[in-house]
Amino acid sequence: xxAIWPDCERPARRGGxxxxxxLISREPTGGRMPEDRLCRMLAAxxxxxxxxxxxxxxxxxxxxxxxxxxxxWTLAEGGWMxxxxxxxxxxxDRRFPRSPAEQAAGARAxxxxxxxxxxxxxxxxPGKAQVYAALxxxxxxxxxxxxxxxxxxxxxAGLLKAHPAGLFLKPAAGMxxxxxxxxxxxxxxxxxxxAGRTMRNEAFELRVPEERLAQAAEALTRGRPYLVQPxxxxxxxxxxxxxLRLFVQKDGSGRWGVTGAAVRIxxxxxxxxxxxxxxxxxxxxxxLAAMLGDQAAARLLGEAKRAALLAAREAERAFGxxxxxxxxxGIEPDGRLWLLELNAKPGxxxxxxxxxxxxxxxxxxxxISYGLRLMAAGAPARGAPGPALLTDRRRKRCMNGTTxxxxxxxxxxxx
Length: 415
Known about the structure:
disordered N terminus, single chain, 18 strands, five-stranded antiparallel sheet, 30% helix, six-stranded antiparallel sheet, alpha+beta
């Protein structure tokens, strides 16, 4: 993409329009943005609502003569046109850094944006251990959380004896299924099969003697913080891993709602169902109905939606204002529901994968409409009170949710 940058902000062609920013990890190549489809849908939704959507990378955030500026692109007549503009009042964080250098550049850009009054649409979530601990404090959600412990190599043998079906390892700060692994004892004992995906998202499988399991696991994790859970039976009849992804967002009124639902199915024999690992997606209700029957599927999907909305509110209460959440659920063959994790930067490929064009447009519209709400309110940096005590009313609402019993025996991680 050839960009000739103007020396000042491009004249507003539709005078008086506000600006909404989208911060991406790196500048576009070949005329396309990272997440080009999402950026175009946000630009279209913004145009309909009277906003100019500006997409920019960390390299484009600068300070000049006491002003904060972004050098970015806006969509015009189907193409991305360069412009230089003041920092937008609200920006949507879509960074997925691939290196420490990209991580550092993004952190620098965020500092400049905040220094000049720009607020993020929502905050990031901390590591999975902290999120797990926060959700477990809610009595309605605690039974849905798999028993979870901090990874300790020397404890694996004992945990395998307690959970002979196997164990599941995942990075405490991972995404897209990278670095996950399933540990399964082979029949007859003495050998443990480890299958998973590397941090580069490459599939691997190996067999190790039980007495070398700790060393093999240490080599796999490479000193990174990991969590360990029982290996749940979350597979199709064809031995494909699958999960239920619910995409929940705030709308223009600031209320949480479910925008989309899909079942993500991984490749046979693998451990992760993420689309980045080669998985596919299907509409949730038909898949669950084929698995459980119509009534049970509808009941389970309703339970998952209620849990996802409650989890979003509880995460926001603990960690600060959020705008959207991807809530991932596991479902065992008997219909047992597990809340596996939350993702504050959920991908939107599931909408295109299942052909839900209306849901994809609604997701973009809700992003923009919530941004407009923050602009009207002055976009405070944090929209939630943090880890303060629940009010009696909210505590009662939390306690009146799902009450399924959990037989957790693993040591819980602490925040």
